[in-house]
Write a structure and sequence with these properties.
By secondary structure, this protein is mainly α. The protein has helices at 2-10, 15-47, 53-58, 66-75, 77-86, 90-109, 113-136, 142-166, 173-195, 207-228, 238-266, 277-304, 310-333, 340-365, 373-397, 401-411. The N and C termini lie far apart (77 Å).
């Protein structure tokens, strides 16, 4: 038994040991939570859902609804009760969760995904208790809230940095870095909004979802690897990669969604009404898709058939796509009545800048080794479209001149 324990601590695990170190905690946790869900469901059908006021304030998300959120805090009540009875101050629980969470980053960096994933999940559970504990004891303070928020960022960062170190020689490094960026921006945009008096709690990927999908994927990944790659010293951990990509995509979507809501909340009343946005987004996306298809076909044809340089082909494709996009936007999306020459001059400027940004962005991406120019093209095009093309077309090129004048006057 001692030899097995020493082997587990040292990471010298057999195939079966790798499976059970990942699966045993999952089976125990699954048994507890499944039995708890059955009891909770019976209780809800008889006397209703035990409402948690803090959960209701935070709201639900598409991935984790209110029923599951109420259930989660109900099922971990025994642990919360033990923490409350222990007499530990809330800040001690905060720092304990942070230490465990940062330890999870070290574990995954060393390739111990089961250990790191379960540490990250346990740290996330502890993190849900400190604020509640402080409010129950009436010891909540701004200092405690700041400590909790900052240490949460350190835990998320440590875990993702550990994953980045493990995948440093793999393409998975890119989605890990994207997840690190997204998980940092989601709370930052919310904090910025609260500083300006705007509450932002929505989004698909909030911290509970990040902990569940990222920690769960990493914790269970060794099970599949032990079954399919038992001899690899550095297995790819496919389940962990899926969780990383999922969190990377939806955390950035959540950050962008919150940023959009914040900008709309802060926009002056004289600015373009938000009620028109669904029309613009649907038709704008459709016309952008058509123009992009023309653009991409041009790039693909000139590079593959005529052997053009990808950077030059990108610049030429932008010009052709811009002509299509201008025509569709003017007459279909924005139904503009402004003088076409003045509007065209504004569009030429924004399109020329777009072509420069796309070409130079592609040039920078192709400086990296083993990067497909097609992947780089789509990535750069998406970033330029969201950060330059869309806002300038909506708020500069096709905005009615009188609206722009009123807006400028309101800012004086």
């Amino acid at each position: 038994m001692l030899q097995v324990l020493l082997a587990w601590l040292g990471g010298e695990l057999s195939q079966n040991a790798r499976i059970w170190t990942a699966l045993a905690p999952a089976l125990l946790a699954a048994a507890y939570f499944i039995i708890g869900l059955i009891i909770f469901s019976i209780r809800c059908s008889i006397i209703g859902i035990p409402k948690d006021s803090e959960t209701e304030k935070r709201g639900a998300s598409v991935l984790v609804g209110m029923f599951l959120r109420h259930y989660f805090f109900w099922v971990i009540y025994p642990l919360s009760w033990l923490v409350l009875r222990s007499g530990l101050p809330a800040n001690a629980i905060t720092t304990l969760a942070a230490l465990i969470g940062m330890g999870s980053g070290v574990a995954v960096a060393a390739g111990r995904f089961a250990l790191g994933g379960w540490l990250f999940l346990f740290a996330g559970i502890l993190d849900t208790m400190d604020g509640r504990l402080a409010r129950m004891r009436k010891t909540a303070s701004p200092e405690g809230a700041v400590l909790d928020s900052i240490l949460d960022r350190y835990v998320d960062g440590a875990f993702l940095v550990g994953l980045a170190w493990y995948y440093r020689d793999s393409w998975v490094l890119f989605p890990v870095l994207a997840a690190l960026m997204g998980t940092s921006l989601v709370p930052y945009v919310r904090a910025k909004g609260e500083g300006l008096g705007v509450e932002l709690r929505g989004g698909v990927m909030q911290r509970l979802e990040r902990v569940l999908f990222l920690g769960g994927g990493v914790a269970l990944a060794p099970v599949l690897e032990a079954l399919y790659h038992p001899t690899l010293s550095r297995p790819p951990h496919v389940l962990a990669v899926a969780g990383i990509i999922f969190v990377a995509v939806f955390s950035n979507i959540t950050a962008i969604t919150r940023l959009r809501d914040l900008l709309f909340a802060l926009a002056p009343k004289s600015f373009i009404s938000r009620k028109h946005l669904p029309h613009w987004y649907v038709w704008g996306a459709a016309t952008a898709a058509v123009a992009t298809a023309v653009d991409f076909s041009s790039v693909l044809g000139t590079v593959e058939l005529l052997s053009f340089n990808p950077v030059l082909a990108t610049a030429l494709g932008c010009c052709l796509g811009a002509a299509v996009n201008f025509s569709l936007n003017r007459w279909i999306v924005f139904k503009s009545k402004d003088f076409i020459i003045a509007q065209l001059s504004r569009y030429i400027f924004t399109s020329a800048m777009s072509a420069i940004l796309n070409a130079f962005g592609l040039y920078l991406m192709l400086l990296l080794p083993n990067i497909s120019y097609l992947f780089a093209w789509w990535l750069v095009r998406a970033l330029v479209f969201l950060s330059w093309n869309l806002p300038t077309q909506k708020n500069y090129v096709f905005m009615p001149r009188q609206t722009t004048t009123e807006y400028s006057s309101s800012c004086v």
